[in-house]
Amino acid sequence: MLSSARHAFARAPRRAFSTTSTRAYDVSKLILIGRLGKDPEVRTTKSDKEYVSYAVATTNYPPPPPNPDGSRQEAGTTWHNIICFNPGQTNFLRTLQKGAQVYVEANFELRDPDPSADSSSPQAQRQIFLRHETIRLIRQAPSHSESHE
After folding, report:
1. Could you give the CA distance from residue 9 to residue 67 in angstroms, rounded to a whole number?
2. pLDDT for 50-97, tens place per residue?
3. Average pLDDT over the chain, rounded to whole?
4. Rounded to the nearest 5°, which phi and psi values hold at 80?
5. Please, what's the largest Cα pairwise distance for the chain?
6. What pLDDT, on the 0 to 100 scale, is given for residue 124?
7. Residue 148 has what pLDDT?
8. Is 11 left (phi over 0), alpha (psi -120 to 50) or beta?
9. Alpha-carbon distance 8 to 15, whole Å?
10. Distance CA 4, CA 13 (A)
11. Residue 101: which residues within 8 A CB-CB, separation 6 or more?
């Protein structure tokens, strides 16, 4: 059985690396393992479409290399704001609590600044939008009794 699969694979046309476009295979994905910074929030768009917004904190470890004087910077925490428009995931996301350790896969989109926007507005900044794809709970948030022991 394996030999027939091997022969079928060998006969299948293969694509060598090239510069031609293959949009079906393009991917921009971010994988995060971190903790929820707050309970996920249900929000509504201007067109009354419901979505869930949540934030995941990740810590860059190991910390950056030592400075020339031998001192070392602390490992930094990065906050990632993620939005989910998948109604099937909304109920699960509502059950998660701040502090839960999660594995998240998200698609991301970079948006260039709007040149006509006020320089102090978010539209005048380069923005990264993370769209929820999947989430897995690794560890529940510690309960209050565990965190005060």
Report:
1. 52
2. 999 999 999 877 777 788 888 877 778 889 999 999 988 988 999 999
3. 82
4. -120, 120
5. 65
6. 77
7. 46
8. alpha
9. 15
10. 16
11. 33, 34, 35, 137, 138, 139
Phi, psi of 147 (to 5 degrees): -75, -15
The band of 109, judged by pLDDT with boundaries at 50, 70 and 90, is confident
Query: What does the H/E/C string look like for the chain?
Result: CHHHHHHHHHHCCCCCCCCCCCHHHCCCEEEEEEEECCCCEEEECCCCCEEEEEEEEEECCCCCCCCCCCCCCCCCEEEEEEEECCHHHHHHHHHCCCCCEEEEEEEEEEECCCCCCCCCCHHHCCEEEEEEEEEEEEECCCCHHHHCC
Sequence-separated (6 or more) residues with CB below 8 Å from residue 111: 126, 127, 128, 129
Please give the Cα distance from 71 to 73 (Å, whole number).
Answer: 7
- Closest C-alpha among 59, 85, 88, 84 to residue 73: 59
